[in-house]
What we know:
The chain is globular, with a radius of gyration of 24 Å. It has a domain at 9-111 and 164-221: Beta-Lactamase, CATH 3.30.450. It is of the alpha+beta class. The chain contains eight helices and eight strands. The strands form two sheets. Strands 1, 2, 3, 4, 5 and 6 form a six-stranded antiparallel beta sheet that branches. It has a two-stranded antiparallel sheet with strand order 7-8. It has helices at residues 59-66, 111-132, 139-145, 151-157, 184-199, 208-218, 254-261, 263-274; strands at residues 9-14, 43-48, 73-75, 83-90, 96-107, 169-179, 227-231, 236-240. One of its GO terms (molecular function) is small GTPase binding.
Amino acid sequence: SAPGRFADYFVICGLDTETGLEPDELSGENFEQTPLRRTFKSKVLARYPENVEWNPFDQDAVGMLCMPKGLAFKTQADCREPQFHSFIITREDGSRTFGFSLTFFEEVTSKQICSAMQTLYHMHNAEYDILHTPPTNDKDSCSSTGDCNGTAVSKLQRFNSYDISRDTLYVSKCICLITPMSFMKACKKVLEQLHQAVTSPQPPPLPLESYIYNILYEVPLPPAGRSLKFSGVYGPIICQRPSTSELPLFDFPVKEVFELLGVENVVQLFTCALLEFQILLYSQ
Length: 284
């Protein structure tokens, strides 16, 4: 049986420099997209501990749900703000485990990966020029459009480009907590503080491994009806577990639902739920 720990696993997902750039088949490859806009396969790079008896690690599910869109590449010209999301893994017996993932961007230091991205751009630009260059004998078309070599379209297509001699390449990476209960706010704070410690010029008071070990082995689940306070990297973190007589744990802000859907849509959804209509939410 589970010993009642706050978290079962700490996971890192991202780019495997040994296997290089692999197209993400699940997302459907679109070679018309520029290489920076394509998706590449991400992998589970590390996890700790290796395995726990009461919650076997599902590498395929965790890897896919941590980075559902695969790897994303950007340059210094793109926005690279960290993004947080949560997910649920439901097993065949109906039991659930919860995941909380913080995705951020870090600089690509592998020369092989940078060179591979540059090669993809050379191939993409060459194919694009062939497809969009009018026939040489079509002089009327050239004179009427003023664009014999498709330069206007080509410039638009190459706006989001990568030049190894000019640009800095960044790739998405993810840190994740796998937990038995859905303490979203506490897990988000833990991950954000860990990320802050990695990117801060000042090192944290203790090695990062100490904080990860603490969250995995020394922080218990709060008893029903009680709250728990434990130390993060830069400050205390608090979570509260409802008692058996209260509504079940729901640690997500309802405000975000109204911000994303709007008041009218939320009212319509609530009406549909009361009338027992089937509801389908479609999202990227």
